[in-house]
Design a protein that fits this description.
about 350 residues; about 55% helix; mainly alpha; 3 strands; three-stranded antiparallel β-sheet; single chain
């Protein structure tokens, strides 16, 4: 492999560079499904050295390396069989060379001291402060556990590199690598032991009574505003009808907001035939995400009252004859056309 020593990497000795390349090639190259975990390693080393800005997410790393996850898996399959390593530009894209000295420092500590070096700051970060007591955003239990898993995998790779390098194939390595023996690696701590708390991600729905009261209030306002001849009041009625429909669909279907956002006028069928032969109102939802998810569509039945709200909204929007139009408009269609004429 051609050497591309530059910057921080050029300040490392040849044995140290060889060790870094061996460890990172294994860590980055070995397939882990569709997700590469090198970002977590870069984040861990960045946090330990106080340079969090150097950690790159996987998407950015793949873009900088100019490859995809499948390309990486194929490349590693080839070089590992041939006894070679991944190119420095690939390693640098996932774990910047500025972090390589931190990896060497961790290897020098040996398995026990290395785990102590990582465990203490992880506990501080879980409690919401830096090692010097400076407040910071606490790491959630899931994040701490993922960082622990990353460290556990790194220790396995260091032990494997020591075993592989013992035959002298890769030349002289730093003597500290000799201490990385599987039986000497301590038991990894758990996020619970470090007093990490679950993330504050409350995704529970609002109480049914609150949703019912909000829908009744919106329905009453729509009826009042729709009866007014004033254009501004009708504009308010249109927006209220749109909000009433949105809230009603969310309450009844419980779907992703992206699924509702992709609804078209033609996604509604007043007399859809269900598998049991019953006819009723329904909407066609795209349940998946991305290109593959676009093909995952299902008809979902809705109550008659919600169907009436949907038809009333379509009537107010003026898009009943446009089945391919988006169901959600910022303003009524006739007002949109009036704006176009005024602009011309």
């Amino acid at each position: 492999m051609e050497s591309q020593d530059s910057g921080t990497a050029s300040r490392l000795s040849t044995p140290e560079l060889t060790l870094v390349r061996l460890v990172l090639s294994r860590f980055i190259g070995e397939p882990r499904g569709k997700r590469n975990e090198a970002y977590l390693l870069a984040r861990l080393l960045s946090d330990l050295t106080g340079t969090r800005s150097l950690a790159r997410d996987s998407k950015t790393a793949f873009r900088l390396a100019g490859i995809t996850i499948d390309d990486l898996n194929e490349q590693w399959s080839i070089v590992s069989r041939q006894g070679r390593l991944l190119p420095d530009e690939v390693l640098d894209a996932f774990v910047p060379q500025e972090l390589w000295p931190a990896l060497i420092e961790l290897a020098r500590l040996g398995p026990v001291k290395a785990w102590n070096w990582v465990e203490r700051p992880l506990g501080d970060w879980a409690m919401g402060h830096e090692r010097d007591g400076t407040p910071r955003r606490p790491l959630s239990e899931a994040t701490v556990q993922r960082l622990i898993s990353t460290m556990r995998r790194l220790t396995r790779d260091l032990c494997e590199v020591r075993r592989v390098a013992s035959d002298g194939e890769w030349g002289v390595l730093p003597p500290e690598i000799g201490g990385w023996i599987e039986t000497e690696v301590p038991t990894a701590p758990t996020a619970a032991k470090l007093r990490a708390r679950p993330a504050n991600t409350n995704r529970s729905a609002p109480p049914v009574v609150s949703a019912r009261m909000a829908l009744r209030a919106l329905d009453r306002l729509v009826q009042e505003r729709s009866a007014s001849p004033r254009p501004k009041t009708q504009a308010t009625a249109f927006k209220l009808a749109r909000n009433r429909l949105l809230l009603g669909l969310f309450c009844v279907l419980g779907c992703r907001r992206g699924s509702l956002a992709r609804l078209q006028v033609g996604s509604y069928n007043r007399r859809h035939e269900f598998p049991d032969g019953v006819y009723g109102p329904a909407v066609l939802l795209q349940l998946g995400q991305g290109k593959k998810g676009a093909a995952l569509k299902r008809w979902k039945g809705i109550p008659d009252e919600l169907a009436c709200w949907l038809e009333e909204y379509i009537s107010l929007a003026g898009i009943a004859d446009q089945p391919e139009s988006s169901l959600w408009l910022p303003v009524r269609m006739d007002w949109r056309e009036t704006r176009k004429l005024n602009d011309e």
